[in-house]
Amino acid sequence: EIVLTQSPGTLSLSPGERATLSCRASQSVSSSYLAWYQQKPGQAPRLLIYGASSRATGIPDRFSGSGSGTDFTLTISRLEPEDFAVYYCQQYGTSPWTFGQGTKVEIK
Amino acid sequence: EVQLVQSGAEVKKPGESLRISCKGSGYSFTSYYISWVRQMPGKGLEWMGRIDPSDSYTHYSPSFQGHVTISADKSITTAYLQWSSLKASDTAMYYCARLRGGDAFDIWGQGTMVTVSS
């Protein structure tokens, strides 16, 4: 099973700042099948990034994904108030598909 | 509108059986896998397994194999997650989500809260 480790666990930032979230895999992620999701309290997760770097439909361009192999990054260029949430990475290239434990982005 | 609509919250006793549902609409139901994802209270996301509604082929995470059953009825564009004997540790929010190829889980259901308590 591929274990995904996200860091940091919590990121305390102010609106307008840049957020950089990391996701490291225990082995190479097949075909860059790495996704990022945002989850707000009481809501279902929402797909942000798939294929490591492709933005999902309707996702603002302040969200970007990068990386390959075992190291991946989600960057939010300028935090908006609605971006404070929990973010999960997921690999869906090798079964069992797995999620990271999440990074909480909170208001400083 | 493309959507997955899940059945409502359930409160059950240990040992009881349960089936929850996920109805797809607005797209070709048989062109996408449906996966189920568990989220225990205050915890992260766990992938449980998936089904190909076109042929009902299933694949489970080893962590959930034998504990749950995933099925689908393509004639009514609905997928199911069922338990034969619930435990208190099954208390969680359960989400369904669709996936095709490399596109990840692009549409999610609203979630079904399952509470198991004596």
Notes on the protein architecture:
The complex is a heterodimer of chains A (108) and B (118). With 108 residues, chain A is mostly beta strands. In chain A, 0% of the residues lie in helices and 49% in strands. In chain A, the strands form two sheets. In chain A, strands 2, 4, 5, 6, 9, 10 and 11 form a seven-stranded mixed sheet that branches. In chain A, strands 1-3-8-7 form a four-stranded antiparallel sheet, with no helix packed on it. Chain B has 118 residues and is mainly β. Chain B is built from no helices and eleven strands. Chain B has strands at residues 3-6, 10-12, 18-25, 33-39, 45-52, 57-60, 69-73, 78-83, 92-99, 105-108, 112-116. The N and C termini of chain B lie far apart (40 Å). At the A-B interface, strand 4, strand 5 and strand 10 of A face strand 5, strand 9 and strand 10 of B.
Quick recap:
By secondary structure, chain A is mainly β. Chain A is 0% helix and 49% strand. Chain B is globular and about 40 Å long.
Distance between the termini of chain A: 35 Å
Mean pLDDT of chain A: 96
The largest sheet of chain B is: 7 strands, mixed
Task: Please report the total strand number of chain A as a whole number.
Answer: 11
Instruction: Give the SSE order of chain A as H and E letters.
Output: EEEEEEEEEEE
Brief descriptors of the model:
heterodimer, A: 108 residues, mainly beta, 7-stranded mixed beta sheet, 4-stranded antiparallel beta sheet, 49% strand, globular, B: 118 residues, 11 strands, 0% helix
Task: Tell me the layout of helices and strands.
The complex is a heterodimer of chains A (108) and B (118).
Chain A: E1 4-7, E2 10-13, E3 19-25, E4 34-39, E5 46-50, E6 54-55, E7 63-68, E8 71-76, E9 86-91, E10 98-99, E11 103-107
Parallel strand pairs in A: 2-11
Antiparallel strand pairs in A: 1-3, 3-8, 4-5, 4-9, 5-6, 7-8, 9-10, 9-11
Chain B: E1 3-6, E2 10-12, E3 18-25, E4 33-39, E5 45-52, E6 57-60, E7 69-73, E8 78-83, E9 92-99, E10 105-108, E11 112-116
Parallel strand pairs in B: 2-11
Antiparallel strand pairs in B: 1-3, 3-8, 4-5, 4-9, 5-6, 7-8, 9-10, 9-11
